[in-house]
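Posting this for the archive.
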Amino acid sequence: MKSMMGIAKEFFEMPVKDRACLYSEDTKQPVRLSTSFNISEDKVLKWMDWLTHPCHPLEEVIGSWPEKPATYRDIAGKYALEVRALILRLLAAISEALGLDTDYLNKILGNHTQVMNINYYPSCPNPDLTIGAASHSDASALTVLMQGDVSGLQVIKNGKWVSVEPIANAFVVNLGDQLQVRKSERI
């Protein structure tokens, strides 16, 4: 976890010229660097940059990942494999807890994808006028989130926004829209 957090920080702290080749506003680009900052459209400024890329099947996608920093592909690749293994274990445990075969959710989700989103919140000169990510739900089945050491994540609990304080060396796991739909269908 520390290695992944470190390489992500190193990526975003590289000179802009070293990251510019990945920048795109095209949401259909599988590997892209982008920003939510749009001063011409936003009243409350979103203050976040991000890198997104597919992670599965790793051997087919890793060649499209950033080449810099030099150890990015190695560190992020190992991290992606470990997170995928965790997701498969979680799907099995959720299936079992629901009284289903342990491979049930994995089967009904089909040949599921894995995408890594790395959000970066640069220092902001006026934080009272900004937010990081806007409120949203996760379209995936599961989101495995490594928060880092900065508070900011919030979830709705009993109709109110509640902060989720970071815990060192821990993940936050969100049930995404795909599992919520399955739950509504009573799986």
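The chain has a mean pLDDT of 87. The chain has six helices and nine strands.
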